[in-house]
Amino acid sequence: MRSGWRLVYALAAAQLVSWGTIYYSFSLFVVPMERELGWSPTAINGALSAGLLVAGLAAYPVGRWIDRRGGRAVMTWGSALGAVLLAAWSQVTGVVVFYAVWLGLGLALAATLYDPVFAVITRTFPESYGRRITVLTLVGGFASTVFIPLTQLLIGTLGWRHALIALALANAVICLPVHAWGLRAPAGDGAARAARSPAPRDEAFRRALRHPVFWALALAFTAYSATLSALTFHIIPLLTQRGVPTATIVAAVATFGPAQVAGRIALLALGRRTSAALAGRCAFLVFPGAVVILVLFPSAAAAPFAFAILWGAANGILTIIRGTAVPELLWRESYGAINGALTLPANIARGLTPYGAALIWSATGRYDAVLWTVLAVSAVAAAAFWYASWGAMTERR
Predict the structure, then answer these.
(1) Which terminal CB of the chain, N or C, has fewer other CB atoms within 10 Å?
(2) Total count of domains within the chain
(3) Which of 151, 45, 163 is nearest to 95 (CA)?
């Protein structure tokens, strides 16, 4: 396959497996672990939050490494670490060891998920990174669709411990070879040219830290991650508290994945006619609009479906915008370090927000306060991205 697309599709397959085995599978192991080990859901979910915090803290050094040395080593070790620690998770009997495993899995997440692969693609294909990132996220968007039912099947047939062994093998058999050999491009390929090119100067990163567009993007992506995480982990209890039937909740939540993919397909179809700035402005406005539906129509049967479709489509587009906003609104130099610095507060917010939303709910006894908070924060995210895109366009005139 010409022009490096074979590498893009291989990386996309690895993304699907990495997201599906480590991130999306977690919630399916909570109940069987609770039953066998007697741990509380809070204690089990705390490990995920700890891992996400580690992933956030590691984002900048991982991005800086890719800027200087390429992605092969860090992504290969990330896949190996993920495989080993998923296998170690299958043997845990104590909470301390379980948390240690997830602190390590946080490093694996930082080294293998979208942010490092975005840096690799932008570095390897500087003239066509946008379309390649869109295709990669289109494939990766099926991770939950594929691995949630697959993991549930494995748990039901093999038990949760052997299911983790199977997920570890998937990382070792699929992700590890892709990163170890796929990123070792032949001479003359774009990846080889990038690997031989001199490391970008740190001045590009320091210049970004002094730029208002960088801080506006940091606020936008952090607020976006906070609202996304809060709703991801609380939408089901929120709708349950409102008396929505379980079957309706499940059906509505199930539309999120297809809507996410539909948003990415739409962006792919528009191609070069739509910039990251324009697509981002539209998607960031859709987020608070989706929340408004839940606020204004709490009893409407169609409200959960309308919310899930809009929310899913916006999230699908914004995942791509996270990968393309830096080179379009700032510059390509030091992309990994700059994107990693943007990811750090966003990942920390993603790890802390579910707990914060639970505190708001506990204090008020209802989810209305959580929903209004999410609406306010999503409006801040939209305003921050509009300012970032306006600032970038103004500077270039």
Answers:
(1) C
(2) 2
(3) 45
Given a cut of 70, whether residue 375 has pLDDT beyond it is yes
Helix axes 95-112, 5-18, angle to 10 degrees: 160
Which of 170, 196, 222 is the last residue before a domain boundary? 196
Question: Which of the 8 DSSP states describes residue 297?
Answer: -
| 183 and 211 in a common domain | no
Here the CATH number for the domain that contains residue 243 is: 1.20.1250.20
Share of the chain above pLDDT 90, in %: 34
In the block, tokens 């299958």 appear at 90
Helix/strand/coil for 365: coil
Average pLDDT over every residue of 44-67: 86
Give how far Cα 83 sits from Cα of 79, 169, 221, 296, Å: 6, 7, 29, 45
Which ranges in 159-211 belong to alpha helices (H)?
A: 160-170, 176-177, 190-196, 202-209
Taking residues 387-391, report their average pLDDT: 87
Given a cut of 50, whether residue 393 has pLDDT beyond it is yes
**Are the C-beta atoms of residues 117 and 15 closer than 8 Å to each other?**
yes
Instruction: Check whether residue 390 and residue 245 sit in a common domain.
Output: yes
* Number of other CB atoms surrounding residue 193 within 10 Å: 14
Give me the pLDDT at residue 232, please: 77
Q: Which are the contacts of 287, defined by CB distance < 8 A and separation ≥ 6?
A: 224, 227, 311, 314, 315, 318, 378, 381, 382
